[in-house]
Amino acid sequence: SVLVALTFTSAALPSPATHALLSYAALLYTTADIAYHVAHPRCQPNVVRFATILLHHAAAAVLLLHSVTYPAHGGWTWRCTLLEVNTFLLEVRRVSGSKNPALRIGFYVTWIGMRLVYCPCLLVTFHREMIRAGFEEGG
Length: 139
Prior knowledge:
By secondary structure, the protein is mainly alpha-helical. The chain has helices at residues 2-12, 16-39, 47-69, 76-81, 84-96, 101-132. The protein has six helices and no strands.
């Protein structure tokens, strides 16, 4: 996945350029996927799945706009798009039809670790960083 490659590039070679490239690429992907889903709503099996994807993408777009608007926070994007590793493992399993237990275990380990542990910790960290950067709570 291009986003996974850009995520690791932004993490390994941190610079305003690599962070901006990832932020803009992720924003482009997110808005393109929103447009695709709006144009083809039946690509999802039901309305609940369709709505959750649109809500998730809208929230992601708002977060990405922050990194684009405040380049000093551009390094935050790779910390969020690191979740794409989990999505990548899921897609590899789906596309390849692989029953490889390593892919299945990798998917579940990254899902549990990233979504149930890493993301809540990231939220607390980002909140602290926003306060430290001078953004007001509730403002």
